[in-house]
Structure prediction request, 354 residues.
Amino acid sequence: MKNILITGGAGFIGSHVVRRFVENYPDYRIINLDKLTYAGNLANLKEIEDRPNYTFVKGDICDFELMCELFDRYDIDGVIHLAAESHVDRSIKDPFTFARTNVLGTLSLLQAARLKWEAKPEKYEGKRFYHISTDEVYGALEFDSTLFTEDTKYDPHSPYSASKASSDHFVRAFHDTYGMPTIVTNCSNNYGPYQFPEKLIPLFINNIRHRRPLPVYGKGENVRDWLYVEDHARAIDLIFHRGRVAETYNIGGFNEWRNIDLIKVIIKTVDRLLGNAEGTSDDLITYVTDRAGHDLRYAIDSRKLKEELGWEPSLQFEEGIEKTVRWYLDNQEWMDNITSGEYEKYYEDMYKNR
Ligand code: NAD
Ligand code: TYD
Prediction:
């Protein structure tokens, strides 16, 4: 494969994937298609924007004509699809946008790939459509239940996870119906540089810096399984090249944290790196009304990926969180640019009456 279309490459995970592919595969042409919603930011890709094997196209995956045109223009033979609306709280306020982008957008991309690939003499040979999804499609675990495997039944609870589940089903349907060589992966919560400060970790780092309250949903007892974003990008690279067609792979960190325990680690790390006395920011913890339908626990069993392709997370959590906090504190300009403009309105809408 030579011409790779990566969607959502200006977002958090997408920017790490684009950077990795542009740097590691100079023979590939990487086309990054992104709508540049509030979550898309070309500053995430500064280091590689002038590379000869990189092209950026601003556009919407729902624009079927544009998707078809891109396949023709760049002779696309591999797709890594990350473009999505990705924040649960936003999906609770505005589910239609999630259905549009995550479901109809994915369908538009699949249909364009199908029509263009089926029209070629070699058809699907050497082609690959890789869809990036989330562990949230599996629903919620109890504290004492076993981890999500690739065979866990889908049971999404939020409009976000319902829309991602739907898109996963469409991708598998295109394999089963048309023979498209598809792969789906379901990953746990990512953290690291370039994440939009609506998600827990960058939001809290930024709030501590500005001495703003840290809104802990409910009792802070929900559990998430955290994976460093570059480990996810490495898994995507491996699976794109060596994963088996029509398979699903779970990707996770074997790294479960109760929110409140994680928050205490973040506070401690930020205070230390800012030179504050230990405990300076503890008073910012503020318990607020819980998220509607808040899933209790997510945790991924990624043994299949380890057994088949040898992938394991490379970074210990303590090291990952230190790197992450350091990055946000060293890149305050990046954060300040993002949090100017519309951000205050978002923040007020989301947290005013909580
Ligand atoms: P993000 O919100 O940071 O980035 C999404 C990107 O998609 C942005 O650049 C945005 O501009 C672009 N986009 C949105 N709608 C678009 C449209 N209609 N057309 C073209 N581009 C559009 O998301 P992320 O956290 O980087 O997540 C990327 C993917 O990984 C998503 O599919 C998400 O469901 C999945 N995922 C995320 C996590 C996580 O912890 N963040 C975990 C597992 C899976
Ligand atoms: P988030 O980063 O939104 O990821 P997801 O909901 O996809 O897992 O949230 C991670 C956890 O942190 C989740 O249990 C909700 C909780 N949370 C808070 O307690 N306060 C907040 O302000 C946010 C954004 C999240």
